[in-house]
Structure formats: structure tokens, C-alpha cells
Amino acid sequence: MGPLQVVILVGFPGLALLAARYLKPVAWVGPVVVCYAVGIILGNVPGLALQTKVSLSVSEVAVPLAIPLLLFATDVPRWLRLARSTLLSFGLACVSAMVAASVVGLAVADRSDEWWKMSGMLVGVYTGGTANMNAVGLALKVSEETFILLNTADIVVCSAYLLFLVTVAQRVVLVFLPRFPNSTGWEDAEDAEAQQASGLTWARVRGMALAFLLAAAIVGVSVGATQWVLGSLEAPAVLLLITTLALAASFRPAVRHLPGSYALGDYALLVFCVAVGTLADARQLHETGLFVFGFCAAVVALSVGLHFALAALFRIDADTVLITSTATIFGPAFIGPVARALRNRELVVSGLTTGLMGFAVGTYLGLAVAWLLRP
Q1: ∠ CA 198-199-200 to the nearest 5 degrees?
Q2: Hey, how many other C-beta atoms are within 10 angstroms of the C-beta on 112?
Q3: Domains, the chain
Q4: Which residue among 76, 85, 208, 338 has the highest number of C-beta atoms inside a 10 angstrom radius?
Q5: Which has the minimum average pLDDT: 12-16, 170-174, 278-282, 339-343?
Q6: How far apart are alpha carbons 84 and 80 in whole angstroms?
Q7: Are 280 and 40 in contact (CB under 8 A)?
Q8: What is the pTM of this model?
């Protein structure tokens, strides 16, 4: 069953992405939700003898590989040259997430032994993305139940916030935030880059292969260096070193422009989703799920509210606040849909860049908050 299980865990995300392209219901809920759902179903089918060790091994390999693949596209110098308002709003969003996760965690500290780990994971995901949350969780050795519950809660809670962003958010925040000056509007035509990315060319296949080999090399060097320096394999050190080396590699244009690198990293995250889903025990999810959902919802609500309040204090325009909120809470993948809803194409580049930088800092910030809160 072991080899077949690996094939299922690694292969199903491809089917999910294919289905999302041709089936509207799958596209609407998204491949991430589908992969989690299928993983949970597989993990709870009576008589299906899935091996826990295999799922754990796949999940523990997927995240370290995803991090460098996602970070290779980061343009750090360009990000540092972004407009003051974008940088300020991004910084305020990160501070808001850290404060919100800390406050909520301390408020419910008596309800769970892993509250401080959950706070750190939520800082990771709401300053960076799913890869950061899972990297923090792996580094802190969080329980399997908390892993799947927090990932599931994040999907549900953020789906509600995304609905707000693409519908009435702009009208609501314009009540207390200034309007974006001279926006360029949104054209219905797709970007040439997006059109190019949709085809599987030889250059794209070659770029993905090179990106994968470089990511694997970075993971190998990080594991070896940590083992050599510390005498043991410490997950926090490994993941922080992977992040640092990947950012260093991104300074080389040849690495930064490897075609397909980000898509491959996103695929690795979907593999993680399926693998972690198979570890979920439906009975345990039912017993402890409400607390985790409440924890996650409270962090999102407080983080977003604090970000908007600070933005009003600093007089940052509404569109910039909404696009940086999208970048930190959802990551680069959702910048396009939200920018379209805002009808402001001018902020796409800064939104994508701050989203990638969120990936860069999310693991650092998440671990820092967790270690500061640790009892």
C-alpha cells in the first residue's frame, strides 16, 4: 500500500488542478479545499489501510520543498523600492497579525496546551501563507489534529473574508479611508505573462526541473548544515536556513525568473494538503473543532480590524490597504481577483511583491511570536 499511497498523495493535486480548469464547482471552491476534503475522506474510509508514517513523510517533505520554490520569484530590491504607503500598510498588516494572534492566544491559554503554537502558526499564515503556517507547525512539532484543524479553519474563515473583499469591502473602507489617487482601472484582457504560463512549453518544463533541483539542493544543504552544527536535526533551524538560502538565491535574476517555479511550489503545497488531510480523525475533529475555528476567526477579525484602524490613523488609501491585506492573509494567488474587484490594475505588481515578501518573513515572525508566548 505504501508506494500506491505515495502515488495517490502526489498525483491527486494534478487531477484537482485539471478539474479546476474545466469544472466550475471545483474552480469555485478551489484546489486547496478539494485536496483537503479528499485527504480527509481517504483518511476516514473504513477498511482503507492508509499508513500514517507514509502520509507524515510526504507532508514533511512537501513543505521544505515548497518554501524555496515559492521564494525564488521574490524580487527583494524591487520590493524595497515600493511606494511608502504600500510598505507601511504591509508592515501594519504584519504587526496587526502578530498582536491579534498574541492577544487571542493569551486569552484562551487555559483551553489548550498548544495555544502558543497555534498563535505562531496563525502569524505565519496571516503574514505569509499556508507554507509559512505549516513550516511553523512542523518546526514547533504541533499535533496532527491541530495541524488539520487549523488548516481547515483557515480555509473556512478566510473564504468568508475573501467574499467580503470581492464584494463590498471597497465601499465599506472608503467610509474611513481616503480614495486611491489616479487608479489605472482594470482591463479584461489577460496578461501576456499569464497566457504564457498557461501553456506547458519546453522552457517551462526545463525551468521547473531546474527550480526543483535547486530547491532540493537547498533543503539538503540546510539539513546537512544543521546536523553538522547542532549535532541533531532541529526543524526550526532547518526551515529558517531554507528560507534564508532561498531568499539569497532569489537575488540572482536567473533564479528569480525560472519559469514555473512558483507553480511547482504551489503544487507541493497541494500535496501537503492531501497528505495532512489523510491524518485527520473525524471524531477528534468533531470534538475539538469548534474551539480551533473560534480561535482562528477571532485572530482574523482582530487582525483585519486592527490593520484597518492603523491604516486610518496613517491615512493610507483604501485600495492599498485592501490589496496588502489580501497579500498577507491570502498570498499572491488572490491578488488578481481582488484587484479586479477593486478595478485597480495599478496595485497588482505591489500586491504580488508584498505577497511574496510575506512568504519571506512569515516563518520568522511566526516562530518569533510562538517562542515569545511559550509558557
Answers
A1: 125
A2: 16
A3: 2-180+215-373 (1.20.1530)
A4: 338
A5: 278-282
A6: 9
A7: yes
A8: 0.70
